[in-house]
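WARN no homologs supplied; continuing
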Amino acid sequence: MSHDHDHEHDHVDNRWSEQQLRVKALESLLIDKKLVDPQALEVLIDTYETKVGPRNGARVVARAWADPAYKEWLLRDATEAIASLGYTGRQGEDMVVLENTDTVHNMVVCTLCSCYPWPVLGLPPVWYKSAPYRARAVKEPRAVLREFDVHIPSEVEVRVWDSTAELRYLVLPLTYRFLMTPRASIPTFLSRHGFLDIYVAYP
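OK structure emitted
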């Protein structure tokens, strides 16, 4: 039999996934036990949500596509050129930018661990850190690229670059697909995959 209730009920907040609820619970526990400073945690979260990540890499690429002088600087001294846009910090102290061309397709891996350019790409995705990717990217890069639905023409050379604790790479993709796109809109087309480069912009 149904009946009305005048008192309030506790409801589950359906805005959060199970994983998010677990993270929130862990965060609350660490704060309650005074193991984490909530203000420091907020600063850390804000950093990775708004200050580092693929959007930064996309802005670097957009600038290089639109500004030949900046592109030349980026390829010659990536660390300084990227820093000029405000993107510096841990894991981005020494950068090299690799340009994809009609004859060369660059691909980045870290065979030892998961070295990654945090200031321009954020935290590394799970697949980048996985042992199969790290091993197979070197041995059979074209096969790995095909699994990402990236098919490189046979006449195009695939070069694999191994990131280290001292050096991080960023790939400058081909521009064909975006030549008629306003510069301000370019970053919305790009993802971290394109800067590694599990992405291709052939016509």
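Residues 5-12, 177-189, 197-203 have pLDDT under 50 and may be disordered.
OK
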